[in-house]
Amino acid sequence: MAVVPASTFARLSNPSRSTTPSMVLGTATVLGGSVAGLLAARVLSDHAASVLIIERDEPDAGDDQRNGVPQGFQIHALLPGGLSLLERWFPGFTEQVIAAGACAAPATARRTYIDGVRKVIGSAATMLTGSRAFLEGQIRERVLALPNVKAITARVTDVVFDGDAVSGVSYESSGMSSVERSDLVIDAMGKSSRMAEWLEKKGWERPPLRRMVVDLNYATAVLRREEGDPAGNIHLALKSGKTSGDASGAMFCRIEGDRWLMMMAGYQDRKPGRTAEDLLRVARQEFPPEFELVADNELVEEIRTYRHADSRRRDYHLVSKLPARLVAVGDAVAAFNPVYGQGMSSAALHASCLSEYLCSEPELAKPARAFFALQRVVVDAAWDISTGADLALPHVDGPYPRGYPVLRWVRNQISAASVYDREIGRRFDEVTYMIQHPSSLARPGVLARAIAVNLWSKFRSRP
After folding, report:
1. Distance CA 321, CA 15 (A)
2. Do residues 141 and 229 share a domain?
3. N or C, which end of the chain has less CB nearby within 10 Å?
4. Together in a domain, 302 and 323
């Protein structure tokens, strides 16, 4: 059956879609215990007698930062698209996690500025903020409470084959080597996954790798929240390239423990906010007043930095020679520019793909092409959102999609109109929040409205 991107995305992102658990597996093994691996394990718990998560970091590390998530101390938010799916698999998740310390960010608690101009309120959907370690810890706690899911601390060293199918993995733990046999193996080992290398060494085809060099630098500070601080939760300020300065964007949001997270980002040689003095200077000189107010608060921890060299995706759907009983999820398939906050929500949508695939009671002796066809819809959508914006950066040089000049013109019309028009803003947000497929912005009526808004904006700004 042909996969229609827009309708498929709508189906996968539907939080009220009911799925009846059915056992199609004896055992399933998930390689990696980050958000993508945890959500894959949650889905597998409905379809396997036992699920094992193999994670090199301690799986019961609580809210502590894990070495396997080097970007974990940077700002994270659960976008509405991902949050709604977490409610699907963990009913009551939002309310419970807020009670534990997460912060709700409804539309009225979000402020976005483009070149200093505050955008109108767009989507009414709510998102959650908290430290990455806290949010991941809340998910981990619920997954490991499932009776048929367990986790071990070990380092996966290879995949094991039985004919044309993956039959397990080999791993090392406490100096001992072991083999875990499995009916289905899920690669959730992240951006640095070695699965492609292991497959190629055993005569299988390596999935094609696409890369887009971004060269993004982050600096993130944890600051104490104080009386008199700005109202609301998420404050985001971006520059379109029309304005100069040391930073390309900045954001701060509330997290658990009465704290703020403040991030500043710059591309190439720009590395703003790496010291407390620089953070305050850039906040004061380049962003709206509330950024200075928060940056002047007490630093709770040292400022952390992170560099995102490139966005990349592994196109498993293009592989002609693929073993059975193997799927990949999360950053092991696609890792995007983190400034767009897609990671955790993409992981939730990948889990939805896995759920639909297993609910179809597939023939596991054959490659999981139906799964990868579903996942391609999600990856294409997220890739379109992030790389489409990155291609507008002067230092980014492709690869360009077919018809890029027209696509860029359409994107610029929609993006500009979303600053002033609530309906366009709502539609724009629903795509960036991973609620709707990007094609919803290319409808003739939406584009015509955006053009009219932009013409009126230019007319109104004339002296």
Report:
1. 34
2. no
3. C
4. no
Same domain, 230 and 370: no
Q: Where are the beta strands (DSSP E) in 102-255?
A: 103-105, 110-114, 117-118, 127-129, 149-153, 155-162, 165-173, 176-181, 184-187, 209-224, 234-238, 249-255
Based on the fold, state whether residues 10 and 31 are members of the same structural domain.
Answer: yes
The CA angle 368-372-375, to the nearest 5 degrees, is 140
Report pTM: 0.94
**How many domains is the chain partitioned into structurally?**
3
> Do the Cβ atoms of 309 and 213 come closer than 8 Å?
yes
Is residue 388 included in any domain, yes or no?
Answer: no
Specify if 110 maps to a domain. no
Q: Which two tokens stand for residue 414?
A: 């929609």
Q: Which CATH number belongs to the domain containing residue 290 in this structure?
A: 3.30.70
Show the domain range for 417. Answer: 404-461
Q: Is the residue at 120 inside a domain?
A: no
Same domain, residue pair 336 and 326: yes
d(Cα 190, Cα 453) in Å, to the nearest integer? 41
Look at residue 389 and tell me if it is in a domain: no
Per-residue pLDDT of the chain (463 residues; tens, 9 = 90+): 567 999 999 999 999 876 777 888 999 999 999 999 999 999 999 999 999 999 998 755 444 455 555 566 678 889 999 999 999 999 999 999 999 999 999 999 999 999 999 999 999 999 999 999 999 999 999 999 999 999 999 999 999 999 999 999 999 998 899 999 999 999 999 999 999 999 999 999 999 999 999 999 999 999 999 999 999 999 999 998 766 789 999 999 999 999 999 999 999 999 999 999 999 999 999 999 999 999 999 999 999 999 999 999 999 999 999 999 999 999 999 998 888 889 999 999 999 999 999 999 999 999 999 999 999 999 999 999 899 889 988 889 888 999 999 999 999 999 999 999 999 999 999 999 999 999 999 899 999 999 999 999 887 766 5
Do 134 and 23 lie in a common domain?
A: yes
